[in-house]
C-alpha cells in the first residue's frame, strides 16, 4: 500500500486544484468572450457565413444566412445543401465542393439557385474553403454566400433590352427598304387605274393589288413604329379619351362573350402623345387580350397617376423618374408562360397562326418613342396585365 498523504500535502493539492479550476474557468470565459465577439462580427456583415460538415450539413452560420434563406436559426442547424437549393443546382455545387476537397484549394464564385422557405427563388454567389482538424484532416467546409438575385435580374433585363434594340434596328432597316420599293408599286397601280377605268377585268386585278399594297403599307408602318422610327405629332391628351375613341372601332373584332370594363378617374393627368399612335397601342393590347380569352371573359382598362422612383426605374435603363400616367389593360384569359412573356414584343413571334405578331412589337416601339415603358405580368391560367407608362404632361 502507498503512503498516505499528510494533511499539509492534501491542503497543497487542494490549492493546486483550485488554481487549475480558476485558470480553466478564466480560459472558458475568455473563449466565450472570443466566440461572442466572433459571432457578433459575423452577424454584422451583409454576406452569409456558414460552416458545413463533409456531407453538406450546416454546423455553424450567421444571421445573414438565416435572413437570405428565410429560416429561423434553430431550423437551419443540420439542414443539408439539398434542402434549400433549386433542382439543377445540387450537382453543380457537389462538384464545386468536391474539387475543393480533392485539391485543397479554395473555390470562388460558384453561382447557384436557391429556394427560400416561402418558396421564393434567388441566386447566390459562393466562395468556400476546407476546414481541417488539428491533424490536418478535412472535416468540413467554410464559406461566404452573397445574394446576387438583383444583379442577375438586371443583367437579364439589360440583355433583353440590347436584343430588342438589335431587332428594332434590323426591323427599321427592312421597313425603310420595303417602303422605298412599295412606293412606286402603289403609285403605278394608281396610274393604271386612271388609264384603264373602262377595263373591268383589269380593274378587279388592280383592286386586289391595291388592297395587298395597303396591307403591306400598314405592315411597314408597324415595323417603323417598332423600330422607333415612325413620325408622330405629340399633343396634350387624355389616355382615357384615347381608349374611349378606340373601343367603338374594335367592337366588331371582340369575341361575343368578352365584356370590356373601364375605370378612368377624373383626376388622371394628361400626357403629351400622338393620338393615332396611342390608339395603335391600345388596339394592339386589347386585340392580344381578346385572343387570350376562350369563351366568356373580361377585359378591364384603367388609368392612374403614379410617381416612378429610382427603385422602379433602375430596372428600366433610360427611363427617368417623375410623374407618369399608367394605363393598364387586364384580361382573365389563359395567360402566358415565362418564355412567351419574354418574347411577346419580338416581331412576328406569335402563339397563334402565321402572319401575326406585329401589334405588340409596334406598341413597344411607340411607347418607347414616347419615352415611356410597357410592362407585362402574366401566368398560365391567371390572365395577363399589360401596363403602359407615359410621362405626364
End-to-end separation = 107 Å
Radius of gyration: 34 Å
Strand content: 15-25%
In sequence order, what are the helices and strands, one letter per element? HEEHHHEEEHHEHEEHEHEHHEE
CATH superfamily of the largest domain: Histidine kinase-like ATPase, C-terminal domain
Silhouette:
elongated
Q: How many H/I helices?
A: 11
Structural class: alpha+beta
Q: Could you name the CATH class of the largest domain?
A: Alpha Beta
Mean pLDDT: 82
The stretches of 5 or more residues where confidence is low (pLDDT under 50) are none
How helix-rich are the residues, as a percent range? Answer: 40-55%
In words, what does this structure look like?
The protein is of the alpha+beta class and 393 residues long. It has three domains: 45-147, Beta-Lactamase; 148-231, Helix Hairpins, CATH 1.10.287; 232-393, Histidine kinase-like ATPase, C-terminal domain (Heat Shock Protein 90). It is built from eleven helices and twelve strands. The protein has a five-stranded antiparallel β-sheet with strand order 2-1-5-4-3, sandwiched between helices. A five-stranded mixed β-sheet has the order 7-9-10-12-11. Strands 6-8 form a two-stranded antiparallel ribbon. Helix 5 (149-195) runs antiparallel to helix 6 and helix 6 (200-226) crosses helix 11. The model has no long low-confidence stretch (mean pLDDT 82).
Amino acid at each position: 500500500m502507498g503512503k498516505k498523504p499528510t494533511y499539509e500535502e492534501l491542503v497543497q493539492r487542494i490549492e493546486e486544484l483550485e488554481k487549475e479550476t480558476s485558470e480553466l474557468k478564466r480560459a472558458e470565459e475568455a473563449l466565450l468572450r472570443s466566440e461572442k465577439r466572433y459571432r457578433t462580427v459575423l452577424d454584422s456583415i451583409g454576406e452569409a457565413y456558414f460552416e458545413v460538415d463533409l456531407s453538406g450539413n450546416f454546423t455553424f452560420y450567421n444571421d445573414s444566412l438565416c435572413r437570405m434563406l428565410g429560416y429561423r436559426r434553430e431550423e437551419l442547424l443540420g439542414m443539408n445543401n439539398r434542402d434549400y437549393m433549386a433542382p439543377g443546382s445540387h450537382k453543380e455545387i457537389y462538384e464545386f465542393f468536391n474539387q475543393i476537397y480533392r485539391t485543397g484549394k479554395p473555390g470562388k464564385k460558384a453561382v447557384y439557385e436557391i429556394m427560400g422557405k416561402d418558396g421564393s427563388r434567388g441566386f447566390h454567389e459562393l466562395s468556400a474553403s476546407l476546414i481541417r482538424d488539428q491533424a490536418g484532416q478535412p472535416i468540413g467546409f467554410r464559406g461566404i454566400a452573397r445574394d446576387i438575385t438583383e444583379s442577375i435580374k438586371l443583367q437579364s433585363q439589360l440583355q433583353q433590352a440590347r436584343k430588342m434594340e438589335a431587332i428594332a434596328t434590323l426591323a427599321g432597316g427592312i421597313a425603310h427598304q420595303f417602303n422605298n420599293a412599295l412606293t412606286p408599286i402603289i403609285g403605278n397601280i394608281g396610274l393604271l387605274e386612271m388609264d384603264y377605268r373602262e377595263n373591268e377585268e383589269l380593274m378587279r386585278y388592280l383592286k386586289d393589288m391595291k388592297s395587298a399594297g395597303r396591307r403591306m403599307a400598314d405592315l411597314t408602318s408597324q415595323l417603323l413604329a417598332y423600330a422607333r422610327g415612325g413620325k408622330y405629332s405629340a399633343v396634350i391628351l387624355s389616355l382615357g379619351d384615347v381608349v374611349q375613341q378606340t373601343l367603338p372601332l374594335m367592337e366588331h373584332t371582340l369575341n361575343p362573350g368578352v365584356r370590356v370594363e373601364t375605370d378612368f378617374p377624373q383626376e388622371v393627368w394628361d400626357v403629351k402623345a400622338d393620338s393615332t399612335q396611342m390608339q395603335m397601342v391600345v388596339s394592339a393590347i386589347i386585340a392580344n387580350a381578346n385572343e387570350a380569352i376562350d369563351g366568356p371573359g373580361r377585359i378591364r382598362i384603367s388609368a392612374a397617376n403614379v410617381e416612378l422612383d429610382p427603385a422602379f426605374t433602375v430596372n428600366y435603363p433610360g427611363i427617368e423618374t417623375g410623374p407618369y400616367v399608367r394605363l393598364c389593360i387586364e384580361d382573365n384569359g389563359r395567360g402566358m408562360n415565362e418564355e412567351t412573356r419574354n418574347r411577346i414584343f419580338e416581331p412576328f413571334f406569335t402563339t397563334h397562326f402565321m402572319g401575326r405578331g406585329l401589334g405588340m412589337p409596334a406598341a413597344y416601339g411607340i411607347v418607347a418613342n414616347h419615352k415611356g415603358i410597357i410592362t407585362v405580368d402574366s401566368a398560365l391560367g391567371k390572365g395577363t396585365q399589360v401596363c403602359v407608362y407615359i410621362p405626364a404632361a
